[in-house]
């Protein structure tokens, strides 16, 4: 029910409480007393008490027209029994049973670090937290962090750890979409890199691994985790179903299993690297000391070293995948077929790779 005109009223704007002062006291000009409190049942009750006090001052002709008397902050009644940091720890423990360990170790730890640096851990300071993220992080990082915090608080609300999600109705953060870095190697660059690895005095051991990446377009983590049981006994077909990331075995990035046919070059490569009497669970590609390939070590030493020697513009190992896809499309292989081979959707192939295909003539 709306209060009659000329009375002190409590209202809310963008979820925050304020007290409306009657216009007639200021010659028709509207004045507000902003309380810096979220509009909750408990905080509104406190604001109503302050409004009644102001109304009493008006009635007894002791109203302070400077409003200084009423600037004292209404004491916030904290409805949240836990801090944001405590909630995030609980949320991380819950998500650890559902997400890959790499996501927890990277994304969740990154958000935990951002939360630790906040000026306030109080959930009632949701808007202050949002402003801090905008002022201290890149727009992309701020957007992702706020989204994660909002999801955490929604989970906590659903689990009845807190009465409501304080981030549910505050504005999100806009950020430009990151540009996908697709810069494939040319056929000449690919062959030059392979030849250099084959003849390199230090990194020759990795030549089969590099060939495999260029010739299959698989993700580096899939090649690192590939076992002989994933390859048919006649070496004509490869099943990509798992990957190894930071030493942890998991399913593929898209959580799907795909079959890849081996051409003559790929079959000969597998014949060369397959040991006699190898066990099914053994890895296909190993490091120089016989252990699993360390992706970061390979990238920072062997891969970067060879590209520097060749004076080829640096691109990550993942660009071997981009190169395979673009060369397949350039050779006229159907998009749907390429998508099945590499484990992408045809829409993704069209979106990111169609513009890279070179054609010399307009088709009839």
Overview of this structure, please?
The protein is mainly α. The protein contains 13 helices and 7 strands. It has helices spanning 41-59, 84-95, 101-116, 126-136, 139-158, 187-199, 207-216, 220-225, 264-273, 295-310, 319-330, 335-342, 346-353; strands at residues 9-13, 16-21, 31-38, 237-240, 242-245, 248-251, 258-261. The strands form 3 sheets. Strands 1-2-3 form a 3-stranded antiparallel beta sheet, covered by helices on one side. Strands 4-7 form a two-stranded antiparallel ribbon. Strand 5 and strand 6 (248-251) form a beta hairpin. Helix 2 crosses helix 5 (139-158), helix 4 (126-136) packs antiparallel against helix 5 (139-158) and helix 6 runs antiparallel to helix 7 (207-216). Residues 359-364 have low confidence and may be disordered.
Feature tags:
mainly alpha, three-stranded antiparallel β-sheet, 13 helices
List the helices and strands and how they pair.
Layout: E1 9-13, E2 16-21, E3 31-38, H1 41-59, H2 84-95, H3 101-116, H4 126-136, H5 139-158, H6 187-199, H7 207-216, H8 220-225, E4 237-240, E5 242-245, E6 248-251, E7 258-261, H9 264-273, H10 295-310, H11 319-330, H12 335-342, H13 346-353
Antiparallel strand pairs: 1-2, 2-3, 4-7, 5-6
Helix pairs in contact: 2-3, 2-5, 4-5, 6-7, 7-9, 7-11, 12-13
